[in-house]
């Protein structure tokens, strides 16, 4: 059951992503002929207004079809040479075509459909993508990942408002993390940490300040008070993660005061979102530079669903936090400057502004083909890694 919930969570994130594209497109007067969750043959579809909504067989994504992007309504200055050559050779033909541009089976000529709007040769129809100013097109593209990031921010803020944001934190142990220095030296719940290497402090901020000048692997002395008795122990600091030398003691502090103010919660949610974005971008950089092992640190849909299923079984709050993290991952991934991702389209809009003239669909399609091959390869590798981890019992998230 938890696997089903995890899959539904992924579908929901795809839904709001594509909904972002569609709503902003419609707000700017751009037609959206189709909105779909999944690929392949439609299982259910219904037309409402000018848009056909469908739920498809393969739940590995979704799309909002924007009028004028890669279809028969691409303006003439953006069509590739094959379009124009085929159009001139077929002049006079009365045969009607519908749908996306297609290759005629058994022929080498690229034959486009007839435009759906009169005058489509010279100028794009006013309700199509390329009829809009560059900044409007950029907002249509950014809306998808933007909604994912906004959803995470609002979700984290809502969770903070429900749980309460700690406004007064004391260095009193509320939990000891297994396998850390704190466990090794025998710290227990309700112990109050008062000094690190002889440097005294009165609150949690002071503890963090003292710890910030140390690195993982250093041996330090830790002074704490238990039942009124002062004790000093010595141990080796751990690391926050394998890829970091940031020092870790392994204790969770006690919050003595909390706030349920929506403004405080919104600020905390914004900070959490920013922290997760920075952490994820840092992870991508470490993967790209070889600082992190690619096989052990990459997860595909199978791995994400499996981890999500485990998190859901722990509790609702953890599950919702994980959903927010995956929403951030989806948003950032789509902003990478590679076609056919949203970031690739944003890059081409910027390039078009710098060049001062349109970039043809032919050029974009060639670049998108390379990008698509790259991501298909990455997807297959991630799926292979997921299945290998299941077979060998290796954890999806490195310990």
Topology summary:
Layout: H1 2-27, E1 34-48, E2 51-65, H2 81-89, E3 102-103, E4 110-111, H3 134-163, E5 165-176, H4 181-184, E6 192-196, E7 199-200, H5 204-212, E8 219-226, E9 229-236, E10 238-239, E11 247-248, E12 251-259, H6 262-288, H7 294-297, H8 301-314, H9 316-334, H10 342-355, H11 361-392
Antiparallel strand pairs: 1-2, 3-4, 5-12, 6-7, 6-8, 8-9, 10-11
Salient structural properties:
single chain; 399 residues; alpha+beta; Pdz3 Domain; 4-stranded antiparallel beta sheet; two-stranded antiparallel ribbon; 11 helices
Describe the fold and architecture.
- The chain has helices at residues 2-27, 81-89, 134-163, 181-184, 204-212, 262-288, 294-297, 301-314, 316-334, 342-355, 361-392; strands at residues 34-48, 51-65, 102-103, 110-111, 165-176, 192-196, 199-200, 219-226, 229-236, 238-239, 247-248, 251-259.
- It has 399 residues and is of the alpha+beta class.
- The strands form five sheets. Strands 7-6-8-9 form a four-stranded antiparallel sheet. A two-stranded antiparallel ribbon has the order 1-2.
């Amino acid at each position: 059951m938890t696997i089903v919930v995890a899959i539904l969570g992924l579908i929901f994130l795809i839904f709001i992503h594509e909904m972002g594209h569609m709503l902003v497109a419609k707000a700017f007067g751009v037609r959206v002929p189709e909105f779909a969750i999944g690929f392949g043959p439609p299982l259910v579809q219904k037309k409402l207004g000018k848009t056909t909504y469908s739920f498809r067989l393969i739940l590995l994504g979704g799309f909002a079809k924007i009028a004028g992007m890669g279809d028969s309504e691409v303006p003439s200055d953006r069509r590739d040479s094959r379009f124009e050559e085929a159009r001139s050779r077929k002049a006079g033909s009365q045969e009607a075509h519908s749908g996306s541009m297609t290759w005629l089976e058994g022929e080498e000529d690229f034959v486009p459909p007839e435009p759906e709007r009169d005058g489509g040769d010279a100028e794009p129809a006013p309700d199509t993508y390329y009829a809009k100013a560059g900044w409007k097109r950029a907002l249509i593209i950014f809306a998808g990942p933007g909604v994912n990031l906004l959803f995470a921010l609002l979700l984290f803020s809502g969770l903070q408002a429900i749980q309460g944001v700690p406004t007064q934190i004391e260095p009193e142990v509320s939990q000891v993390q297994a396998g850390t220095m704190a466990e090794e030296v025998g710290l227990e719940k309700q112990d109050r940490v008062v000094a690190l290497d002889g440097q005294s402090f009165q609150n949690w901020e002071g503890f963090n300040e003292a710890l910030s000048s140390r690195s993982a692997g250093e041996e330090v002395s830790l002074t704490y008070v238990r039942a009124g008795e002062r004790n000093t122990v010595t141990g080796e600091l751990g690391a926050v993660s394998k890829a970091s030398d940031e020092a870790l003691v392994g204790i969770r502090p006690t919050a003595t005061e909390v706030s349920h103010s929506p403004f405080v919660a919104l600020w905390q949610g914004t900070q959490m979102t920013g922290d997760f974005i920075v952490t994820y971008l840092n992870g991508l950089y470490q993967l790209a530079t070889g600082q992190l092992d690619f096989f052990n640190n990459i997860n595909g849909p199978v791995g994400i669903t499996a981890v999500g299923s485990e998190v859901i079984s722990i509790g609702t709050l953890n599950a919702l936090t994980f959903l927010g993290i995956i929403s951030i991952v989806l948003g950032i991934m789509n902003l990478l400057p590679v076609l056919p991702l949203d970031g690739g389209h944003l890059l081409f809009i910027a390039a078009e502004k710098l060049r001062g003239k349109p970039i043809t669909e032919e050029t974009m399609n060639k670049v998108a083909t390379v990008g698509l091959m790259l991501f298909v390869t990455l997807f297959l590798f991630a799926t292979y890694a997921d299945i290998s981890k299941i077979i060998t019992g290796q954890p999806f998230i490195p310990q």
